[in-house]
Each structure stands twice: as structure tokens, then as C-alpha cells.
């Protein structure tokens, strides 16, 4: 019975992480809250790395055609065969620039952030901050498309992603808020945000993959981890599809309301 209960907890956590990863309500914050409610403490980053990788696979699957187009266009421009594809190459350059702030801050201050900014009360406060940010851009209708981006856009969105290293600050929410604040159309903001997720998630998998492999509990938890991975992959895929529709309809304020409600509930009752 205890083994079944443990499996159900990991299935729930994997599904929760997968569903909340693409949408702007902080997946890490929800997983922390869920662990507290379930009385389940997962030490180390093995589980987080695994389920985040599952979310990455979902992003790659959904954006596979865009990724192929971006890759072939960039190569075509670099080789001189398709000079008209410069915008594809520059989009990649801006993604690289936007990745740098989170990498630097994560390497220098990641442990400090994890040690000093933890606990459910911090999650409650940062969810409220996320809600305020989403509310602030709820009515913005940008005009910038992929080919209209510039270095300043990349730096500002990159800094927003770095801020999301704080638990409870949604990565997708922070980057989409920054992107739309810079005048990007919803589709471009969403695309840039999730393309930024790719190098960050891959880097995390490379850096922390050894911890996953050497996890002493992996032998006894391989089934819960596997189920959590599968659930995260499926939930991430359908959640991102749903969120893309929400973005097209301009319904970001619904996520702001949710962050307000959960943030207040956490501060009052947890």
C-alpha cells in the first residue's frame, strides 16, 4: 500500500510539473508546495532535472518545424547560399545573448538563491509578484515579429529569465512579460520564451545529469521516476498547446488571477 501511495505521489508531481512548466504560474513553486502538502521531500536535483527534460522534449516536439526552419535558415545564411535568411540567423544570435544572463547568475549565485530564498512563504510572495507582472501586460498588443527583434530585446528578456531563478517566479511568465513589454506580438513572445527554454534545460541536463545517474535512490525509485517522466512529458505537451491558444485569445489575466489566489492562500494558510 505504501509503495502504491508513493507511486501516486510521484505521478501527481510529474503531472503537476509538466502541466505548470509551460504556463506562467511557476512549475518549481507548485512542486515545492505540492511536496509540502504531500509530506514528500525530494532531496537533490535529480527529480527536477528529469521532469524538466521531459518538458523540454514536449517543447521540441511542438516547435519541431520552427526549429528545423531556424536551423536550415541560419546555416543557409552562414554559408552564403541564402542571404535572405539573415533574420533566422539573427534570431539564433538573440537567443544566445538572452541565455547569457541566466547562465552567469545561475553559476555565480544559484546556490545562494537556493539557500536563502526557499520555503513556502517565499513562494507565496513571488507568486503575487508574478501575478502583478502578468496583470500589467494583460492588454498589450505588440507589433514586433521574429525579424524585428534587436539586441536590447534579447538582453531584457534574458535578464527576466535570470530573475526567474528565484523560486516562485515563473520562467515562462517572466520572459513573456518582458517580451511583450518590449512590444513583441504574442506569438513571437511565446516562441522566443520557449526557444530560450531549450538551451537552459539542455545545459541543466548536462550539468546535473551525473547527479541523476549517481543518485543512490535511483535503484529503488526508477519506477516512480519513470512514471513521473512520462506524465510530465504528456502534461507539458497538452499544457503548452492549451497555453498557445490562451495567448492567441489574450487571456493572460486569468493566470494573474490564479497567481493572486494561490499566493494569498499560501501566505494565509501554509
TrEMBL record:
What transmembrane ranges does the database entry give? Answer: 44-63, 91-110, 122-140, 189-210, 222-240, 252-269
Q: Which UniProt keywords apply?
A: Antibiotic resistance, Cell membrane, Cell shape, Cell wall biogenesis/degradation, Hydrolase, Membrane, Peptidoglycan synthesis, Transmembrane, Transmembrane helix
Reactions it catalyzes:
di-trans,octa-cis-undecaprenyl diphosphate + H2O = di-trans,octa-cis-undecaprenyl phosphate + phosphate + H(+)
E.C. numbers = 3.6.1.27
- What subcellular locations does the record give? Cell membrane
Q: Which InterPro entries does this chain map to? A: UppP (IPR003824)
Q: What does the record say about its membrane topology?
A: Multi-pass membrane protein
**Alphabetical list of Pfam families matching this protein:** BacA
Q: What is its main location?
A: membrane
Report the sequence similarity comment from the record.
Belongs to the UppP family.
Role summary: Catalyzes the dephosphorylation of undecaprenyl diphosphate (UPP). Confers resistance to bacitracin.
What remark does the entry add?
Answer: Bacitracin is thought to be involved in the inhibition of peptidoglycan synthesis by sequestering undecaprenyl diphosphate, thereby reducing the pool of lipid carrier available.
Q: Which PANTHER family match?
A: UNDECAPRENYL-DIPHOSPHATASE
> By what name is this protein known?
Undecaprenyl-diphosphatase
Lineage summary: Bacteria, Bacillati, Bacillota, Bacilli, Bacillales
Amino acid at each position: 500500500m505504501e509503495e502504491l501511495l508513493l507511486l501516486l505521489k510521484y505521478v501527481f508531481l510529474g503531472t503537476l510539473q509538466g502541466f505548470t512548466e509551460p504556463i506562467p504560474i511557476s512549475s518549481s513553486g507548485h512542486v515545492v508546495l505540492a511536496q509540502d502538502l504531500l509530506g514528500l521531500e525530494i532531496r537533490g536535483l535529480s527529480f527536477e532535472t528529469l521532469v524538466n527534460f521531459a518538458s523540454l522534449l514536449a517543447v521540441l516536439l511542438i516547435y519541431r518545424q520552427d526549429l528545423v526552419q531556424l536551423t536550415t535558415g541560419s546555416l543557409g545564411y552562414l554559408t552564403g547560399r541564402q542571404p535572405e535568411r539573415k533574420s533566422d540567423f539573427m534570431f539564433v544570435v538573440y537567443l544566445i545573448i538572452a541565455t547569457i544572463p541566466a547562465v552567469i547568475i545561475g553559476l555565480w549565485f544559484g546556490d545562494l538563491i537556493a539557500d536563502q530564498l526557499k520555503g513556502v512563504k517565499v513562494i507565496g510572495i513571488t507568486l503575487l509578484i508574478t501575478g502583478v507582472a502578468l496583470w500589467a501586460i494583460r492588454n498589450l498588443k505588440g507589433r514586433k515579429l521574429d525579424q524585428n527583434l534587436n539586441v536590447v530585446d534579447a538582453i531584457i528578456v534574458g535578464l527576466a529569465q535570470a530573475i526567474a531563478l528565484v523560486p516562485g517566479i515563473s520562467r515562462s511568465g517572466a520572459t513573456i512579460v518582458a517580451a511583450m513589454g518590449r512590444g513583441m506580438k504574442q506569438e513571437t513572445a511565446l516562441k522566443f520564451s520557449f526557444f530560450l527554454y531549450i538551451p537552459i534545460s539542455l545545459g541543466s541536463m548536462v550539468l546535473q545529469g551525473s547527479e541523476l545517474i549517481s543518485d543512490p535512490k535511483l535503484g529503488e525509485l526508477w519506477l516512480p521516476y519513470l512514471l513521473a517522466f512520462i506524465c510530465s512529458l504528456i502534461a507539458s505537451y497538452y499544457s503548452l498547446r492549451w497555453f498557445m491558444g490562451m495567448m492567441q485569445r489574450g487571456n493572460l489575466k486569468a493566470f494573474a488571477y490564479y497567481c493572486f489566489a494561490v499566493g494569498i492562500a499560501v501566505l494565509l494558510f501554509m
